Amino acid sequence: MQGCLAIQGGWVVAWGDGGHQVLDGGTVVMEGNRIIFVGFPDDPGCPQAEKVIDARGKLISPGLINLHCIANLDAQVLGIDGSPQGGSPRQTLSYLTNPAVPNMFSDADFRASADFSVATLLKAGNTSYCRVTGMPNTRWEDPLEQSYALVEASERMGARSWLANYYRQGCDYTDSNGKHGIMWDRSKAEAGLDHAIDLIKQIQKMDNSRLNGFLFPSRTDRCSDDILKETIRQSKLLGVHVRSHFSEYLNEYHEFKSKVENKERTMVEWLSDVGFLGPQVCLTHALYIAGHSATGAPAGEDLAILARSGTSVGHCPVVFARGGTAMESLSRYVEAGVNVGLGTDTFPPDLVEEMRIGALINKVVDRKRSAGTVREFYNAATIGGAKALGRDDLGRLAAGCTADISIFNLPELEAGPIDDPMRTFVHFCHGWDCDMVIVDGNVVVEDGSVVGVDEEDLASRAQQSWGNYRTGIADRDQAGRSVDELFPPAFPIVRQ
Question: Is residue 58 part of a domain?
């Protein structure tokens, strides 16, 4: 058929009988931006393709869906082993209240950061991703320049993106004595919500099916009931999804318990009462729910409430492993009927690493070899993310689905002998083994490189912006500490 492209000869992760299955030597045929056939080349119904990509020795996967990732150069790598600032520098009071204090990033920095983020996501096999920002360069909400830089980069590189400006009513700060506090201002949340709505409307005007917006109140516990209710109301008017950081810190759990009159009430029950649950809602992290060992509370009905409401959870195991914490556990959520998607949160945007490390952590937490299976985590990175986004045409390879495809090398020596290609992929490969990425029928990564991107130049721009960011952190430290004091290197770095 004229205009058809076939990818064949490798292991095809096909959708059939209600789940993923692997076709050894299978083929995927696409026409335009749609998959029209998945099966074997000698099947009678296999269309004749105009062009064939030889994928022997490779895994042909539905595009990975990164449900939660930071949209700029990430501070997390500064504090992996811990630091005086806990790995995430808090904003100073002066920075929050003094408009004369500039953002850490210039417009050029925002563009470099956006380009770096989108390019690395694509290179790691992410075809869809939900981008939120939230570095300490912001005050109450994201700088609009940053969000629009992401829109432009996503459109130019051919990425499928869900983008948002976060907003909040309560803002954490550190005063001149180094004491932590929370500043509350309803007008800031209302203004931030208005800007978030404007961003969504601008994206919708672009009439690009790959670009989408969503609403993101930064943390549920830093927003009032009224702000959360208004967020849900606006999401219905705009036809967009909602997500928010939820119960990611143990102190968040204890703060909630200290405020409520009924000490038996859980945070999940609170959101249910507010009306902030449902199929259009994704709670990012949702670690410290009832039943987590660190809370000391019985399991209760939290998971059942999430399952009944159709609320999704975005799981990001690596970032919490860096801080010595873990979900308990993805297997438990899945067994309860909760839809779980997977995200990277911080750098690197490698969902294969998230699957592998998440699965291993899951086994340790549950103390069961059979927990944290490849099936559970691969499903989370594909169909779980698609369901959270309300897209049954993504996260699977089947006729009629959108042609979002990631092709990964399975290195013969590094990966070892292959028994089950899925176990090999999850436990012995990386996102950087991605060879080709197709989004909406268009090749956006070829031979491991992002099409149309000078990666050497991009790396140089990102490094320069990173230097500006490191300096900005130190400039805003109340104690006047250097970057190396704030984030001690693993070994002393000697410079000429």
Answer: yes
Instruction: Look at residue 238 and tell me whether its pLDDT is greater than 80.
Output: yes
- How many residues can be counted in the chain? 496
Domain membership flag for residue 183: no
Predicted confidence at residue 52, as pLDDT, reads: 96
Q: What is the CATH number of the domain that holds 419?
A: 2.30.40.10
Share the mean pLDDT of the chain: 90
Query: How many other C-beta atoms can be found within 10 angstroms of the C-beta atom of residue 55?
Result: 24
Phi, psi of 421 (to 5 degrees): -60, -25
Are residues 31 and 80 in contact, defined by beta-carbon separation less than 8 angstroms?
no
With contact defined as beta carbons under 8 Å apart, do 130 and 68 qualify? Answer: yes
Q: CA–CA distance from 100 to each of 103, 129, 461 (Å)?
A: 9, 34, 26
Does residue 147 belong to any structural domain of this protein? no
Range of the domain at 439: 4-62+400-450
| C-alpha dist (Å) from residue 387 to 97, 241, 360, 400, 450 | 40, 11, 24, 17, 27
Domain count, the chain: 1
Question: CA nearest 343: which of 141, 2, 67?
Answer: 67
pLDDT for position 202: 96
Predicted local confidence at residue 86, as pLDDT: 39
Q: Which of 296, 292, 377 is nearest to 334 (CA)?
A: 377
Cα distances (Å, whole numbers) of residue 135 to 90, 113, 166, 171, 329: 10, 12, 11, 13, 28
Query: Rounded mean pLDDT of 455-460?
Result: 94
Average pLDDT over residues 335-356: 96
Question: 296 in a domain, yes or no?
Answer: no
User: DSSP letter string over 314-333?
Assistant: EE-HHHHHHTT---S-HHHH
Identify the pLDDT of residue 87. 37
pTM over 0.85: yes
Q: What is the pLDDT of residues 151-165, one digit of tens each?
A: 999 999 999 999 998
pLDDT tens figures, 376-430: 999 999 999 999 999 999 999 999 999 999 999 997 767 778 889 999 999 999 9
AA letter at 483: V
Residues 6+ apart with CB under 8 A from 292: 328
